[in-house]
């Protein structure tokens, strides 16, 4: 039973929450949506759902907090716009409201019904109406989506402005091309199936970026093997080829996506998985350097925290008997917001504990007061995870996931190299 949606008395009112694109998704192909500031959701895959409900206690600090399951429908809002709406599962709407969705409740974007049966009838009516009136329109949109996807594949590194007049916007929502692609593809799939099916289960997870003002996110595909035990021969061959042609086979890790804030230009740099697959080991190292560099200086204060957390995760995974995290990713997240600048000729009391490093070597006029920089390291994406406790699996592995651990150790070593080579 999910922690957020236990058995409750079914009442006669229901409220839906508009799901929006999650703008900080930098990798993966499954659509991640914003439920509210602190919660995201993604399509429920049974194996991943099972993992979150049974994962070992010691791993919980390295995964997003699991918050339950919702039902998602493709519908029209009050303005006639097509969108995805989340509803409580099995009538557990009270607990849905307990997830604090007040930050995403503009009245024009919520659907309310006074009777659940009426709600279902309305869903069916909208679906039939949409299929009848919009078939031609969707063919055109589908073609445009394919063109955009091809453009994204070719534009592997992009820059988007996120500042106005030198200040980070309080509503930090840049147009992340990867998240928009995944959102549009999810809408497309659900539209195409609307005539036959219009209710899907999504899992709710902690939004790992919520505590950062300007999240810098690195998505790393971990392990030397990506295909699950149940993969078809075609899928297996395809995944093996991707590993062999990337750094996965050599060091057990490759870049799957990245967004990093460039303080000098007020832009956000995006790198997608297609670029990550092409990188050599040296290119991977340079990408890591770029992730920790904000365009003005290297965020050296982050290294020790990252190394410590990666080492702790490695120790935890070495003790996990029979687990295999095929095609799983590792996220590294930190805040790109600049530290406070203080002029070096300021009052002496203002210069206590300043970093000796200047942020702008050409100017040499500023030093920085260190701030408490937090870095998060989390495992995500468990659609192909297996272990001996999954009774239905035909293949049972023994010992630790050596491919994942191998990748973690190489990642730690490369970050240490960057730290040591950059000096103090």
From TrEMBL:
It holds the Pfam family IPK. GO terms for biological process: inositol phosphate biosynthetic process; phosphatidylinositol phosphate biosynthetic process. SUPFAM superfamilies: SAICAR synthase-like (SSF56104). Keywords: ATP-binding, Kinase, Nucleotide-binding, Transferase. Transmembrane segments: none annotated. GO terms for cellular component: cytoplasm; nucleus. The keyword Kinase applies. Its EC number is 2.7.-.-. The keyword Nucleotide-binding applies. One of its GO terms (molecular function) is inositol hexakisphosphate kinase activity. Belongs to the inositol phosphokinase (IPK) family. This is Kinase. It comes from Smutsornis africanus (Double-banded courser). The gene is Ip6k2.
């Amino acid at each position: 039973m999910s922690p957020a949606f236990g058995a409750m008395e079914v009442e006669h009112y229901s409220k839906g929450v508009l799901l929006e694109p999650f703008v900080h998704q930098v990798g993966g192909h499954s659509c991640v949506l914003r439920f509210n500031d602190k919660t995201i959701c993604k399509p429920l895959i049974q194996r991943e759902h099972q993992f979150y409900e049974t994962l070992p206690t010691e791993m919980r600090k390295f995964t997003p907090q699991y918050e339950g399951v919702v039902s998602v429908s493709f519908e029209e809002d009050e303005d006639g716009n097509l969108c995805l709406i989340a509803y409580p599962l099995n009538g557990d709407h009270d607990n849905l409201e307990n997830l604090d969705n007040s930050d995403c409740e503009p009245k024009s974007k919520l659907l309310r019904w006074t009777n659940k049966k009426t709600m279902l009838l309305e869903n069916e009516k909208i679906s039939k109406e949409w299929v009848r009136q919009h078939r031609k329109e969707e063919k055109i949109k589908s073609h445009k989506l394919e063109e955009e996807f091809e453009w994204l594949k070719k534009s592997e590194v992009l820059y988007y402005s996120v500042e106005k007049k030198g200040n980070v916007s309080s509503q930090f929502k840049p147009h992340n091309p990867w998240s928009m692609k995944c959102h549009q593809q999810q809408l497309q799939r659900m539209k195409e199936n609307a005539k036959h099916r219009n209710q899907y289960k999504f899992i709710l997870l902690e939004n790992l970026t919520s505590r950062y003002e300007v999240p810098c996110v690195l998505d790393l595909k971990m392990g030397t093997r990506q295909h699950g035990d149940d993969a078809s021969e075609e899928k297996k061959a395809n995944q093996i080829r991707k590993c062999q042609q990337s750094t996965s086979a050599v060091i057990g890790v490759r870049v799957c996506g990245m967004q990093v804030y460039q303080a000098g230009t007020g832009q956000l740099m995006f790198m997608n998985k297609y670029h990550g697959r092409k990188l050599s080991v040296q290119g991977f190292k340079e990408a890591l350097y770029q992730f920790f560099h904000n365009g003005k200086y290297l965020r050296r204060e982050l290294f020790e925290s990252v190394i410590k957390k990666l080492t702790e995760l490695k120790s935890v995974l070495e003790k996990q008997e029979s687990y295999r995290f095929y095609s799983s990713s590792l996220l590294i997240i930190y805040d790109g917001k600049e530290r406070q600048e203080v002029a070096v000729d300021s009052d002496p009391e203002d210069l206590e504990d300043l970093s000796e490093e200047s942020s702008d070597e050409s100017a040499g006029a500023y030093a920085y007061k260190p701030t408490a920089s937090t870095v998060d390291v989390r495992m995500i994406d468990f659609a192909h995870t297996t272990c001996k406790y999954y009774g239905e699996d035909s293949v049972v592995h023994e010992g630790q996931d050596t491919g994942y651990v191998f990748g973690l150790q190489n990642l730690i070593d490369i970050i240490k190299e960057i730290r040591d080579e950059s000096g103090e």
